[in-house]
Amino acid sequence: MADQEQVVKLYGTWASPFSQRIEIALKLKGVPFEYIEEDLINKSPSLLKYNPVHKKIPVLVHNDKPVAESLVILEYIDETWKNNPILPLDPHEKATARFWASFIDNKILATAVKIGLCKGEEKEVVILEVCEQLKMLEQQLNGKDFFGGDKIGFVDIVAFWFQITHEVLGGDFFTPEKFPGLFEWIGKLQEIDLVNECRPPREKHLAYVRGIFECLINTPK
Amino acid sequence: MADQEQVVKLYGTWASPFSQRIEIALKLKGVPFEYIEEDLINKSPSLLKYNPVHKKIPVLVHNDKPVAESLVILEYIDETWKNNPILPLDPHEKATARFWASFIDNKILATAVKIGLCKGEEKEVVILEVCEQLKMLEQQLNGKDFFGGDKIGFVDIVAFWFQITHEVLGGDFFTPEKFPGLFEWIGKLQEIDLVNECRPPREKHLAYVRGIFECLINTPK
């Protein structure tokens, strides 16, 4: 299908790591797209129409067909536009990438949120847990520039949120001394122009992430 | 690669819907495999070696290379053995199947577990929630025999656990009157010999699932 026949829209929000994933993937593929900023306090009728189940961003709409859930969208993009593969082509390497992406979303992210929710001794236990998880992930770099090898791939895109969240949550446990591999990797990501284009303004972004965690900590449960 | 060169092992447990998924997929593909029953109270050194991150079943070991996480394994199987596709070939249909598989694992399963954990009014709210989720899933059948169309596919395999869990948790909310589509689908699954081979002995299985929920309900939190 020629490019001029393609209409690609991305419903996202500027600070969401989940919509940033999709922006990075589309840019890696060189797919022109219209970005539509959603107001999550007043969700648009389009978002509710395209993602009636979760009512969440990101949603990719390709020729009026919606795809929701960031990992599902990444796979869709990789299968629809074959240039610059995001996932490895070998089935076992592909499975390994999917395994670590799931680990980031279902384990590391869940534990990172708990850091924001816990206090005192409980918080210490959660920090130990996330450090163990981050160490396991770091080992996958194993001397490579990126999880994808010598260029950015699926796991790098999925782990992209580390580069800002750690500044809010990291404290003295997520440091270059303790995680040299992950910090080198963050540095490598910062060298990629295309990735930098998807990075929101730093101070504004930090303030937003801090806002989320302050709300989590202070809202009665 | 010729079949005789392939060594395929599945580490699972008889009552786990997650290892049942893999059994069904391998049988659909006609892949011969060795099934190794794990004792989850005394995990084997092999399991710990092949899945050091989660230390969980199922693990598929193909020519000594392990793949863990049931959805990741299903994708691996479908990409490695191309006959009898489990996922649709069209990228948008494939994305839709992945979306619903994720919905089953991350939403319906999580809510079903909550039913076992809640009491009184709270339980009523959770039951309403799971009914709404099941209704959304049921709509995907839309007159078809299976979620995959006229034959069993990815979403059918992932939703396979409904066929027994509902007998423990279903009570008066998961009934053929309220969910005629899902009950017809359960009936269609029961007509497939290959699927029946993966079904554990009924009374033993029911007792096991009941045991899990009784433990969840009665263990102090």
Automatic annotation (TrEMBL), chains A, B:
The answer, when asked if Transferase is one of the entry's keywords, is yes
Where does the UniProt annotation locate this protein? Cytoplasm, Cytosol
Per UniProt, residues of the GST N-terminal domain are: 6-85
Which region is the signal sequence? Answer: none
Keywords, A to Z?
Detoxification, Transferase
Presence of the UniProt keyword Transferase in the record: yes
Q: What are its GO cellular component terms? A: cytosol
GST C-terminal domain: which residues?
A: 90-212
Q: Which reaction does it catalyse?
A: RX + glutathione = an S-substituted glutathione + a halide anion + H(+)
For this protein, the Enzyme Commission number is: 2.5.1.18
Q: List GO BP terms, alphabetically.
A: glutathione metabolic process; toxin catabolic process
Entry superkingdom: Eukaryota
Which Gene Ontology molecular function entries are recorded, alphabetically?
glutathione transferase activity
Pfam families tied to this protein: GST_C, GST_N
Q: Which family does it belong to?
A: Belongs to the GST superfamily. Tau family.
Entry protein name: glutathione transferase
UniProt organism field: Acer yangbiense
